[in-house]
Amino acid sequence: DVKVTQSSRYLVKRTGEKVFLECVQDMDHENMFWYRQDPGLGLRLIYFSYDVKMKEKGDIPEGYSVSREKKERFSLILESASTNQTSMYLCASSLPGGGSSSYEQYFGPGTRLTVT
Amino acid sequence: QQQVKQSPQSLIVQKGGISIINCAYENTAFDYFPWYQQFPGKGPALLIAIRPDVSEKKEGRFTISFNKSAKQFSLHIMDSQPGDSATYFCAARVANQGGKLIFGQGTELSVKP
């Protein structure tokens, strides 16, 4: 059974703190993604990675960075958390390439981050 | 700009009725159009997907209708059940970007018994 796990379900941090969100997948997928989910805005892509040590900016990368040192692990970093980064953060993984399988992304359960 | 616009934001349907969710896109550099279903407390999961050279795809009670010339596609849920109550997202895969998806804004569906 495919699995994407995220380090925390709920997280409360203070403004200015450095925040690490961890994601691990056990499917040997090359692609990994970080999204934030906000009501009325859907899922917005923050960063994605096609391979170890590789990263690409998504649609809303400002205020975030990522790290992928191992194939199975993709970390999202908030360098200095702000209140407008309060959101649900979702990690996903998928197979690579342009074939029909890469449109299926497997999601973790999400981390609800509150920045006060 | 690559965008997918989804409507309605919320939908209430009686059990046994048909639920219809619509999406429209502007950019033509999309090569697959998947739909995802998300239950409370869970991440989204793939429900059904269609290629742009196909006008309709059906899987059980779920059907995607695709209108390439109008750049619109929709999800129809026949005989809607309370267990279908969830948030639905349409998406579009960006061609030649290895799996990047652009998601719509989401529709919260509630099926009343």
What is the alpha-carbon Rg of chain A in Å?
A: 13 Å
Structure classification of chain B: mainly beta
* CA distance, first residue to last residue of chain A: 37 Å
Q: How large is the share of residues in beta strands of chain B?
A: over 45%
Can you give the mean pLDDT of chain A? 93
Q: How large is the count of helical segments of chain B?
A: 0
Oligomeric grouping of the chains: heterodimer
Using DSSP, what is the number of strands of chain A?
Answer: 11
Task: Give me some keywords for this one.
A: mainly beta; B: 113 residues; five-stranded antiparallel sheet; 11 strands; globular
Overview of this structure, please?
The complex is a heterodimer of chains A (116) and B (113). By secondary structure, chain A is mostly beta strands. Chain A is built from no helices and eleven strands. In chain A, the strands form two sheets. In chain A, strands 2, 4, 5, 6, 9, 10 and 11 form a seven-stranded mixed sheet that branches. A four-stranded antiparallel sheet of chain A has the order 1-3-8-7, with no helix packed on it. By secondary structure, chain B is mainly β. Chain B has no helices and eleven strands. The N and C termini of chain B lie far apart (41 Å).
